[in-house]
Batch of 3 targets.
Target 1
Amino acid sequence: MFVSKKAQETSIQKEVRGPVEVEKIFDKYIRMTSEKVAKSLSDAKGRYEQGHAYKDPKPSQNWKVVKQADSVSEEIVEMWMKIGIKKVAITEDGQTEDRQPATAVVGILQDWLDMLEGMKADPQSEAAQEFHRIAIEQAKPKTLPKAEDKTGWKYDSKSDSYIAI
């Protein structure tokens, strides 16, 4: 009754999808961690290099201001690194948080981003292997599988993912 030629021409059709490829744990966690560090780097550059500082500083993904000063360059910043939701060591003595002068934040975040790129480029390196170990731990699903006959999860190193068992 109300069939419109215009509507038929402009109608949006559902996209037919092929099989979904599951992203490997290592690749996924390198990507997610890199995105967080890149966002933190952008926030730090905005605050400390481009002068876009809020009066009341908001925490970023990997740092927050813990001591404000008259000049933002004199602030003290607490930094941390997370793989998933787990904070990991960022100091020689294994501390998961470290206080730094604001002038060092951009450089440290850039170093972290470079380290993540290095791990991605050389997944067999010692640092990449440790990152992967933590990522596997963090990636384990918290809920039970939905399949009726499955009661848990097992890590499969061939696919670098968890499979229902």
Target 2
Amino acid sequence: MAAEVRAAALKRARTDAAGVADGARRRILELGRSRRTPLHFGSALSALEILAASASVLRPGEDDLVLSKGHAALGLYAVLAERGDLDPRAFLAYGRDARLSVHPHRGSSPATAFSTGSLGHGIALATGSCLGRALLGRSGQSHVVMGDGECQEGSVWEAAAFAADRGVSGLTVIVDANGFNQNSSLAGTSSGEGLAAQFAALGWQTSVVDGHDAAALTGALLRPVSRVPHVVIARTNKGHGCAQLVDAMPGAHFTSLPGE
């Protein structure tokens, strides 16, 4: 019976995540077309299924999410609005008031555990959160959403090595591997499989999935892991859902949406 209940819960989470990501993508594109101002559309659109899958399995009040690639905050807010965890009117004011700023700050939304924006700190922050819960005898887990370009920061690997050495359980990193950093392609310098190998060499459990397949992401996030941290390499397309943005990479990191 327990296995049947878990299977039913997994099916619901997978279905919910896919629908939430689709709805969040519509919200972002509608906002962009009404504003015609430059925003971080590409990074937000590539991360939507990741954020939706994470939100579908995290438990409010027990778990936390660290959006290490803080410039994708538009994607996080769209997912929260689609889930009913954020007032849609607040989402429409994104970037225009102090609450929903371009980079998230602690308390700006129900899912913002830390202020982020300066890249390379998410794993360290989440590791501290996991260790703190362990000291207090509390259960819970931390998800970190970060970019493959961000993995060029040395602090990422310092924190990853520490987390593995300490056997930090309850820590999951999801890498939005969209193949670009801010201004250039990562082709020839970084790949999903290469990043997985680097994490594995440090002692992390690894998964590599299609980052736009909400079912695959949800399954990976619910995968039983041993007492080591877990990394999910999610292969994505920057600007996914807007062909003009995809075709304009890498020059469309921070841009307005193309006209109809």
Target 3
Amino acid sequence: MKIDRALPHWPQVAAEIRRRIEGGTYRAGERLPGTVAIAAEFDVSQSTATRAVASLRAEGLVYVVSGRGYFVAEPADDAN
């Protein structure tokens, strides 16, 4: 994915990671690449990568394990 430099970067990075989670590239319980690797892949700063992953955490798509990194959360059970 190529970043549109005219738009804020972190939402674009978050959207691509979200797409990968929803598409099964990153599966529930799987560790995401670290923010250094994400920054390198998308050619953005590490703080941009961190903000993107933090936004996914706020959405409940990923969770953090202290000292280990970010992991894909189990899908929410929408059945009531």
